[in-house]
Amino acid sequence: MADNAFFSGSTLLSPLSAATGLPIDQVNFLVCQLVALGFGYPYRLLLSPETTSPSVRHVVQLLVGFPLALFCFGSQIKHLLIQSIVCLLLMKFMRNGLMGKAVFVVAMGYLCVCHIYRMYYDYGGYTMDISGPLMINVQRLTSLAFSVYDGRSADDSKLTPMMKQFATKSVPSLLEFMSYVFSFHGILCGPFCFYNDYISFINGNNYQLRDTTKNSNESINGKLAPSPNRAVLKKVVACVMYGSVSMLAMHHFQHAYMFDPSFRDFNFLYKMYFIVACTSLSRHKYYFAWSLSELVNMNAGLGFNGYDGFGRSKWDLIANFDFYEVETSTSLKSLLDNWNKKTMSWLRYVVYERTGSTLAVFILSAFWHGFYGGYYLAFLGAGFFIHASRLVRRNVRPLFLTTKGKIFLYDAITFVGTRLLIAYLTFPFVMLEFWAALDIYRQLYFWMHIIGGILILIFTLKPMLRIRKKAL
């Protein structure tokens, strides 16, 4: 194991790192994900719920997942253990009224401390350390705590449909809990999965819980469980595609160029072109990581979500994005709804369903990501622009619904506008630095902020003026 704070994972694969030119942390991650992918097949078939008890499946999850995490993150794994055990104790021994909030504060607080520490030893860096798994673990711990809280609620009428869906009556056993935290197909990169969905996968009743169609040729009550092989093959192709585009982006559109003083010398149009290209291509590294994590989970059997209209099994239960919807969306809200979907589900469950505040959702999302100023420019900007886009859609869209030609024109304009807006909104997230991103906004004359502010002013004052006019 390396003995520095910057990286504490295994150095066993250093020769492979030197041969490929990839950093050792990325080599460890990819190799461990491939090991998890390979192990998923025998786990799904030889240790299936039909032939293996839930306890054995839990034990295997832990025996494989823990060493993979240890190989990648070394001694840093202690943070995952401390965060998890403390929150489990709170769930078991704290009274229900305060338990959910207490777990939320402890889990998020621990993550925030680790984010600050990482900024100290690896400021602006992208070394893969334990903060990634900690972020996913915060989602697991807080959602589980609120699931128990909702399950013990004395008044079901106060629960929303989503709260009722994921409510659970009891705190899981230590084995169930550690299996959930250290599942070999989810420990390194997620994606987040609600506890109820995970335990249904372990017990094998996830197939009975999903809607089926009569023309399906895949048994769910007999010995044959729905096969993910078709979905796995598609996801492999997707991983290759996203990985290739990501490599292209690394060589031709590096976000670091925006820090270069020479970037200031280019005109407005080139700067917008570069920002659109850079942010669009940089999305593919997330597509690759998420596709790989979904692939690993599906191959282990987690992800079944019923059947489509043709009787084919769907494996999108833990899908983290919809590529087509993200890249062709005609509204910012639609784009964000289909980006990092499992995190959005978590935010909705633990924040929006309980507060009804969109602003609270974006603030928590920023804290969850860390403390780089660029995050806050991006997420607070998202709240601002979503508000503006809703007003535009409410007031302008009906004017274009009269003919097919006008509908096409509206869709074309909003498609281009959404491409520009998401690039303008997210480049601070990529840059991380608050002042550097703010300087780029200055170079762009804050043009979208100004337009958004004018639109909000117009469509906010318009109803007020109508009321005043009627009163006169």
The share of residues in extended strands comes to: under 5%
Number of strands: 0
Structural class: mainly alpha
List the total number of helices: 20
Question: Biggest sheet: strands, sense, closure?
Answer: none
Mean pLDDT: 91
Question: In percent, how helical is the residue content?
Answer: 55-70%
Task: State the end-to-end distance.
Answer: 78 Å
**Rg (CA only):** 24 Å
Low-confidence stretches: 211-223
Shape: globular
Q: What is the element string, with H for helices and E for strands?
A: HHHHHHHHHHHHHHHHHHHH
Describe this structure in words.
This protein is mainly α. Helices cover 69% and strands 0% of the residues. α15 crosses α16 (358-369). The longest helix has 33 residues, at 268-300.
Secondary-structure map with pairings?
Blueprint lengths: L13 H7 L3 H23 L7 H20 L3 H17 L2 H26 L9 H21 L9 H6 L7 H8 L13 H9 L2 H4 L19 H24 L15 H33 L22 H6 L3 H6 L3 H15 L2 H12 L3 H24 L7 H28 L2 H10 L3 H25 L1
Helix pairs in contact: 2-3, 2-12, 3-8, 4-5, 4-6, 5-6, 6-15, 11-12, 12-18, 15-16, 16-17, 17-18, 17-19, 17-20, 18-19
